[in-house]
Amino acid sequence: MNILLTGGAGYIGSHAAVALASAGHQIVVFDNFCNSRPTVVDQIRALTGQPIPVVEADLRDTAVLLGALTTHGIGAVVHFAGLKAVGESVAKPIEYYANNVQGTISLLQAMQAKGLKTLVFSSSATVYGDPQYLPIDEAHPTAATNPYGRTKLHIEEMLADVARADPQWRIARLRYFNPVGAHESGLIGEDPNGIPNNLMPYIARVAAGQLPHLNVFGNDYDTPDGTGVRDYIHVVDLAQGHVAAVRYLLEHAPGLYTFNLGTGQGYSVLEMVRAFEAVAGRPLPFTIAPRRPGDIASCFAKVDLAASALGWRATLGLKEMCESTWRFQQRAAGL
Ligand code: NAD
Ligand code: UDP
Fold first, then answer.
1. Type and span of the H or E element at 43
2. Among candidates 55, 34, 80, which has minimal Cα distance to 193?
3. What's the 274 CA to ligand 2 centre distance in angstroms?
4. Residue 8 resides in a domain
5. Annotated active-site positions, please?
6. Which residue in 37, 87, 140, 233 has its CB near the most CB atoms, within 10 A?
């Protein structure tokens, strides 16, 4: 099938492009490169041996989207494009609503105009807000604690309305937990601009000597070692989850489906530091800093639904997450 990947040059989209192409699909990348580089597409081409057409445009340009859907004979869309930094969303809510919500409306309009009704959407565990119980299953109540999370929730609700209004739509809302790691080649990975917000890329830069030390945001949480616990999932496993979700949509009755994509296993900040130290073979300096506003103690997924319905489970462990991150980081840093 010809599949359009909005945001296909980004961190998760690029890994999904490789996985979907390896599963036999023809991939088209649609990206405005506001948070990625065109060279990523060259790497996807190198890894897949596919020509991988690129449409460089903003998602909100519905006419260009329509043209892309037609020209490339698209049969399904996987929608990654969006802005994703929580702190930035607090400072720039209008940009976040415009990009994420308006961008998705534009996509839905273009798809509707083409009669194209198969969509996989990148959602996030952030839609669960402050966990009321653990592990978090898909029936957990939703809530948003910041503008980024609210855009995800708005989009999820829009998609539910679309599926209700027209039962021919096939929509999968995939709620990612904490994606980390990189492709084993070291050619693609997570390379945020400026100082990373997320733990893993921050650790990687400390290990590479590009940042002096890690700030551990709080060691007085109600967790085994006092530091925050998250469900880190290898991006290559996550990418395979998209292959499974596309297959599921094509093989099942139309409708709206929602799946957690995580490992079900939580690790603390200090466990992540120790695991990375072991892989990089060097100590990682860190200091205990105050809690980060808005952070929660623990968050990890119940993953049974994805396992039973999609036949998908994460297979890569913490060691592979750290090894692949380190390989990518060393390459990126020219070490
Ligand atoms: P990313 O920033 O690396 O990739 C997003 C891509 O979308 C980038 O290539 C960017 O240039 C592109 N883009 C953004 N706005 C666009 C627009 N208006 N038009 C065209 N292209 C546009 O982010 P990622 O980590 O790969 O995340 C992908 C998706 O997964 C996002 O929707 C994000 O919210 C979601 N998600 C990410 C995480 C995470 O921790 N990385 C967790 C949960 C959910
Ligand atoms: N964290 C940290 N130092 C950092 C970045 C993150 O201690 O520089 C902690 C954070 O408090 C949380 C965990 O690492 O407990 C994961 O944070 P991240 O921002 O990667 O993901 P999210 O908050 O979205 O789960």
1. helix 39-48
2. 34
3. 15
4. yes
5. 148
6. 233
